[in-house]
Amino acid sequence: MKIRIRGNSVRFRLTKSEVQRLCGTGTVEEKTEFDGSFFSYAVKASKKHDNLHASFLDGAIVLYIPIISLNNWNTNEKVGFYHTQRLDNGSGLMLTLEKDFVCMDKTAEDQSDNYPNPKMM
Questions:
Q1: What is the CB-side half-sphere exposure of residue 44 using CA atoms within 13 A?
Q2: For position 21, what pLDDT does the model report?
Q3: How many domains does the chain have?
Q4: Is residue 115 assigned to a domain?
Q5: Contact of 15 with 102, CB cutoff 8 Å
Q6: Which of 2, 5, 13, 30 has the fewest CB atoms within 10 Å, measured from its CB?
Q7: Is 78 a member of any domain?
Q8: CB-side neighbour CA atoms (13 Å) of 119
Q9: Is the separation of the CB atoms in 43 and 14 below 8 Å?
Q10: Which range of residues forms the domain containing residue 47?
Q11: How far apart are CA 37 and CA 87, in angstroms?
Q12: Phi, psi values for residue 35, rounded to 5°
């Protein structure tokens, strides 16, 4: 799982096996360790939320996705989900959850579990 944070936007990208796990168990989680602490991030299925919804608490970002949205996501062509969450201060937080495609640029990153890039076909 990759996350990209830029300004008031957070984008999560999941590999094939992560999408499979999310659809099957309702959760995927990762963490990055630092000396004496860690930063964690997760995507979790939710019965409470109607759209993507994010929280940040105790050094963890959790992106909630409506459980109904996960029906067959692992087997269909839908790339992702997009929503702007209204914050208490009136601003918006743009949220994205997408399948991770093979990069068209050269990269040293292992991409064997990524989805085929449609632009390469």
A1: 15
A2: 97
A3: 1
A4: no
A5: no
A6: 5
A7: yes
A8: 5
A9: yes
A10: 2-102
A11: 27
A12: -60, 115
Q: For the chain (length 121 residues), average pLDDT per consecutive 10?
A: 95 95 97 94 97 96 97 93 97 96 60 60 53
Which amino acid makes up residue 90? G
The rounded distance, in Å, linking the Cα atoms of 37 and 90 is: 32
Residue 120 covered by a domain: no
Strand spans (E) along 1-121: 2-6, 9-14, 27-34, 37-46, 53-57, 60-66, 80-86, 92-99
Angle at Cα 87 formed by Cα 30 and Cα 85, nearest 5°?
60
CA atoms within 13 A on the CB side of 52: 23
Rounded to 5 degrees, what angle do the CA atoms 92, 93, 98 make?
A: 140
What does residue 41 show for φ and ψ, rounded to 5 degrees?
-150, 145
Phi, psi of 83 (to 5 degrees): -160, 145
